[in-house]
Amino acid sequence: MKKIFFSTMIFFFLFIPLFAVHADDASSGDSDLMWITWVGSIAALVFAFILTLSILKKDAGNEKTKEISRHIQEGAIAYLKQQYKIVALFFIFLFILFLILSFGLKLLSPFVPFAFITGGFFSGLAGYIGMFVSTRSNARTAWAAKTSLNSGLRVAFSSGTVMGMVVVGLGLLDLSIWWLVLNLFKVPVEEIPPIMITFGMGASSMALFARLGGGIFTKAADVGADLVGKIEAGIPEDDPRNPATIADNVGDNVGDVAGMGADLYESYVGSIVATMALGAIASLRLPGISALQAIQIPVSIATIGVICSIIGTFLVHAKKDATQKVLLRALRSGVYFSTILIAALSFLLIRFTVGSEFLGIWGAMIVGLIAGNIIGYFTEYYTSEHYNPTKNLANESLTGPATIIIGGLSLGMSSTLIPVITVVIAILSAFSLSGGFAYPGLGLYGIGISAVGMLSTLGITLATDAYGPVADNAGGIAEMAGLDPEVRKRTDALDTLGNTTAATGKGFAIGSAALTALALLAEYGNKIKEAVEHLFADPSVSVVFENFYAGLIHIARDGGQTIQEISMKIDILDPRILIGLFLGGVLPFAFSAMSMRAVGRAAGDMVKEVRRQFKEKSGILKGTDRPDYAACVAISTKGAQREMVAPSLLAIMAPILIGILFGPFTVIALLAGSLASGFVMAIMMANSGGAWDNAKKYIERGAHGGKGSDAHKAAVVGDTVGDPFKDTSGPSINILLKLMAMVSIVFVPVCITLNNMIIQIFR
Amino acid sequence: MKKIFFSTMIFFFLFIPLFAVHADDASSGDSDLMWITWVGSIAALVFAFILTLSILKKDAGNEKTKEISRHIQEGAIAYLKQQYKIVALFFIFLFILFLILSFGLKLLSPFVPFAFITGGFFSGLAGYIGMFVSTRSNARTAWAAKTSLNSGLRVAFSSGTVMGMVVVGLGLLDLSIWWLVLNLFKVPVEEIPPIMITFGMGASSMALFARLGGGIFTKAADVGADLVGKIEAGIPEDDPRNPATIADNVGDNVGDVAGMGADLYESYVGSIVATMALGAIASLRLPGISALQAIQIPVSIATIGVICSIIGTFLVHAKKDATQKVLLRALRSGVYFSTILIAALSFLLIRFTVGSEFLGIWGAMIVGLIAGNIIGYFTEYYTSEHYNPTKNLANESLTGPATIIIGGLSLGMSSTLIPVITVVIAILSAFSLSGGFAYPGLGLYGIGISAVGMLSTLGITLATDAYGPVADNAGGIAEMAGLDPEVRKRTDALDTLGNTTAATGKGFAIGSAALTALALLAEYGNKIKEAVEHLFADPSVSVVFENFYAGLIHIARDGGQTIQEISMKIDILDPRILIGLFLGGVLPFAFSAMSMRAVGRAAGDMVKEVRRQFKEKSGILKGTDRPDYAACVAISTKGAQREMVAPSLLAIMAPILIGILFGPFTVIALLAGSLASGFVMAIMMANSGGAWDNAKKYIERGAHGGKGSDAHKAAVVGDTVGDPFKDTSGPSINILLKLMAMVSIVFVPVCITLNNMIIQIFR
Fold it and tell me: Which of residues 221-240 of A touch B (CB under 8 A)?
């Protein structure tokens, strides 16, 4: 009954906008429907709040499970404290810089500094809330799993759903607030989206810190715990005597929950704001669609997505004695139902707001949804032990660590082909369906819409993704607290389920990153044009750009006053374009090198700390002294924070410096080059890492001699190499690509002005 | 005395052209100096012949060393027989295809099929001769090393010099012959270079087969010999009872000598023909330089390089009791002397042929020489045990195989930054020095010239590079034949020396690959323009391209007859450009995945064969039965040949298919994207592999517990992973990039015509 009530309420909310539109004159296009983002945002946040209360009501188990869970909570808080210190410094520095650029030099809009801060704040908040709930759900999941697999799933899935809802809810909330504020300040509609990209940049910066920091933290703790605890001291995994154990479990929350939350917040918001911006520009040259309408379509799709995701979560339930297979079907039916509902409602939305002549935009959105599913399927195919690639990889472990490493690397490399081809087909289809071959601007908007479409199901796909770490933690707690082995078996089953659904989630994240980065690249092109027009509007500027950006910008002053033509065509053989491509190609490699080495160094610190504790307090190993868990958490945190700064600076400084030195067209080539190499590398790292992980688990379940065999040892080597691949470097590259594009966009006026000064000097 | 005689003779030869030019009117530019390529070619080949005779005169040692050497020779021949069967099929197939396209459909020049064949033939011949000499020098080097380090060096270095001279000599010979033939057929001067690019394509195809095949062969034999011989049967390395031992030693010759020879032949010829082609085009729009002059400059620089390399080799000598350090100084002084001499003589060449206004071209050449040295230095820095990166990597072995793998991957990734920045600066400098900002065509020619400059010292740098595998083989023979351990020590010292100089050689190969690929990309741009002009010259073709290549080619018919404008500007945000970039970015990954997996599969076959022999003939392990070496060689060969076809087809088919489906501009983006990701990946793979190799050797010399320690075992894992990186996939990527560009160039008319048909259908 409760479900039916909820569903009815939600449908009611959802159809208000559609009815409102229909009542209005659709073609006049002036009805401000942006209030529906409030509906989506509040619905998601209220739903998340109700779910959180219901989780907190559950029994957290006995003293032991409660204590372990508390340690993990404390560790997570300790991590956040340290992380926020560094991040705050970074944000304050950039905030002041933005203040100077906006109010002092008048190069940026006065809203930019504040938009930047809110993006970072909400991204961090999404991660924080997700972590708050997941660290409180772990013991409860373990305890619920005592009853049945289904009970365990309900708690863990609720926790994942909170995460999903918080991410989309806060995303829409930030959009809603800024829409309101900028309207109050009477900013013209078409100027709003570019300001919003600044909060995308804030969100991306925070996401990069969270992913890098979280990834370094969790892998340092993991490696440290294993090397000293398991190998040197000879105590089993997840043993409470190991000072790094808690840090290890904290890491799951810090990396896989908080990091992923901030990351997907950034993806979600990034795709929406980039598409809004492209829509605003496209509408200027198109009859039949207003800027407001073009801006509303992506947020409306997102809102529909939120509501349908909420409805979808109600379908995820099963009988008490349900098997793993039944549960997987339940999870999938929730996602599929939401997807179909979103597709149907979006059709109505577009049909009744901008009319049937723009239904191609709906087509672009469907392309995104399908492409996300294809990439997700092949992510699973390449990394799941149920398919040949990972099974063959497990076979490679029979001839030792070298062959499994070579096998995993080549698996990851070959797994890049299908996602890239899928994205390529998606780009072409989204562009042409939405009418890009007649109006290129509309085609680029269509590419953005397909990214929004791909992420429209985020509320529920993230739920199926984020419950995995909770189940993982629950298993650790069950082990440490000495619960019935049956409980551990059940949490393991949940974890495996989580791996399968997480693969799909990763596919969506990767695919949308490529499309969003493209949309941002397109928006960057628009910004350059705007900035050059602005520069030339000043009659005292007399440079004829053509001489300097040879073949890049064709500008001629008619009688020294009017601008005749600004052409955005690029001579791909101009050396300034070529060097941009080369530098762009190398950036993801340099970035990954930094983040991988960071994991190594932080792990080294952890090894020293654990050794120190064992040496100074001999009672720890005997079980009479309590190890100093917080010290290990602090070490891992400190290491993570120290190491995450350099790669982040690389991402932010590279486009600015190149832009100032060589001008905006080299930056376009830089972004294109980094996209060409980074996108592929991100897929490779994610899939190599995932396959090694699952090959190891496959062997642990008994294949090739099981735990302790030589094959297993080889597989552990593969898994350890894969850890920084899949949890640190790989996902960070996706953020890197988008962050670089956003930085380029935000700093366009600065780069153009300074680059013009350099050109004047060299004349 | 002999030296002085030689030097005088050579200087005499060398100055003829300069005097001839000076006598002529330099500005008229019609003096055909192309005959000097005959001088360079014959000088190199005669010198190689004399050296070969002197090597064959040396004592090949006792019965044992002779026998082992003979086995290696037989194995190498067995390999070649098999390889040429497959390659011949491939070449015949393409030859027939070219015949149809040239004579049947009149789409290509009638010389294309024959040029293609000669390129492949000479590339293969260079590898064959190099291998012929190296397999005859190995035992002789071992025997000479009995006397002193210096005597060993002299034999090995002579063998390397033969290789260097054969590569440059045959390169210039092919150029000379075709110049003669095409002049006989009265082909206009400016149409000659594009035909010559076809023999570049032949050479590249052969090089790709040789590198892939050789790389797969040697690594399969290596892994197979180790896994069954060392680990399962427990016999030491290089033990004659191991059936795969000979295959292992054959592999060194097949991969590191024949493969490298074909590879560098391709680089050398590729850079020259690409630059000739760019020169011919550039001269059309430039006053003061004729097509003939522009074509002659790169070949003259190459010829000067050959002569100076010959002179340089005479400086490589030392006293009988010279230490390793003194020998390194001797090697280096030879290279440096040649470099300086080339720089000085090229100055005179350019000053007195095209005049001082074009001295910027000389600047571009110097840029190439310097850039090559910088990249070479940093290749050594990152991969030599004398510097911190590899020392730190060796430290990582203390915590097991996982950390040394992570460390090696991140070392390789971070080592890409400096080479890329060096190439970027070289591109900008070469372009601007040669006047590209006024005449872009001249700037692109300058980029080509810098590649030619970088490779002008190839005669001697390849000598210092190619003697390494000979020393390596000599060590193996010394071990197998039970020579005095002092001999092994000396050959090891030579091998180490070789590693150091080989690092520099690799730097030149990598840097020149990037620059040559760029030059080819530029030439591709020229060819498209030409093909479109040709297409439009046919008045029956009425398509206005603008509608289809939106924003790509601006063509308008004036009154339906004249072409108003062909603009080569590209809209980087056009989806057809974006998909080209993405597909280009993924190609090197897909290609590497294939070649790495190929090594794994071929190694598996070898394991089975060795096991079979041990099982069927129990006398082998007792030393009473002779193992069937040839069977192992055949297995490795067969595996190599089977596995090298698919990646090669990928390289050739990708640009053709994309060109037919999406048109030539998508191909430009494809080439640019693959260059952006492939160049970086090639450096990473080469340096990761090199560092792992040297970290292992560093440990074997006693660090971290030496041979047999856990650290050593971990380092062996790193080395095994690095093997396909540095000897199969990495160097093949360099060839891949150039081959794809050459295929695109050669197939331009085919792609444009078929793509136009598709466009007509979809209208």
Answer: 227
Task: Name residue A6's amino acid.
Answer: F
Residue A672, chain B, CB below 8 Å: the answer is yes
State the DSSP H helix or E strand holding residue B563, giving kind and residue range, or none if neither.
strand B562-563
Describe chain B by its helix, strand, coil percentages, rounded to 5.
85, 0, 15
pLDDT tens, residue by residue, A284-341 = 877 788 888 889 999 999 999 999 999 998 888 777 777 778 888 888 888 889 999 9
Q: Is A354 helix (H, G, I), strand (E, B) or coil?
A: coil
DSSP B356: G
Neighbours of A452 (CB within 10 A): 29
Strand partners, A563: A557
User: What DSSP state is assigned to residue A558?
Assistant: E
The tens digit of pLDDT for each residue in B383-399 reads 988 899 999 999 988 88
Instruction: Please give the single-letter amino acid code of residue A463.
Output: A
Which DSSP state fits B559? T
Q: Given a cut of 80, is residue B24 above it in pLDDT?
A: no
| Residue owning tokens 């892998």 | A219
> Which pLDDT score is estimated for A586?
95
ipTM value for the complex: 0.89
Burial (0-12, 13-18, 19+ Cβ within 10 Å), A619: exposed
Q: Which two tokens stand for residue A429?
A: 């289809």
At residue B598, the 3 state secondary structure works out as helix
What is the rounded CA–CA span in Å between residue A264 and residue B189? 60
> What mean pLDDT comes out for the span B52-77?
88
B431/A575 CB distance under 8 A: yes
Q: A436 to chain B: which residues are within 8 Å by CB?
A: 575
| Distance in angstroms (rounded) separating the CA atoms of residues A737 and A516 | 9
Reported as a single tens digit per residue, the pLDDT across A55-69 is 999 888 888 888 888
pLDDT at A218 over 70: yes
Q: How many helices (H) and strands (E) does chain A have?
A: 24, 2
DSSP lists the bridge partners of residue A570 as: B570
C-alpha A144/C-alpha A24 separation (Å) is 51
pTM of the shown model: 0.90
Q: Which of A292, A270, A297 is nearest to A445 (CA)?
A: A297
Nearest Cα of chain B lies from the Cα of A1 at a distance, in angstroms, of: 50
Predicted confidence (pLDDT) per residue in B127-159, tens digit: 889 989 999 998 999 999 888 888 888 899 999
H or E element, residue B557:
strand B557-558
A721–B592 C-beta distance less than 8 A: no
Residue B647: closest C-alpha in chain A: A414
Angle (CA) B229 B230 B236, round 5°? 100
Query: A719 — alpha (psi -120 to 50), left (phi > 0) or beta?
Result: alpha
Distance (Å, rounded) from C-alpha B15 to C-alpha B293? 17
Task: Please give the DSSP secondary-structure letter assigned to residue B239.
Answer: -
Average pLDDT, chain A: 84
Distance from CA of B29 to the nearest CA of A (A): 28
Mutate to test the interface with A, among B573, B579, B606 (most CBs of A within 10 A): B573
* B406 contacts A600? CB cut-off 8 A: yes
* Pair of tokens at residue A55: 């989780």
Contact residues on chain A for B514, CB-CB shorter than 8 A: 582
The whole-number average pLDDT for the span B423-447 is: 90
A728 vs A725: CA distance, rounded Å: 6
CA distance A614 to A559: 81
Parallel, antiparallel, or unpaired for β A562-563 and A557-558?
A: antiparallel
- Can you read off the two tokens belonging to residue B95? 């030859």
Query: For chain A, percent helix, then strand, then coil, each to nearest 5?
Result: 85, 0, 15
Nearest by CB: A582 against B227, B406, B423: B423
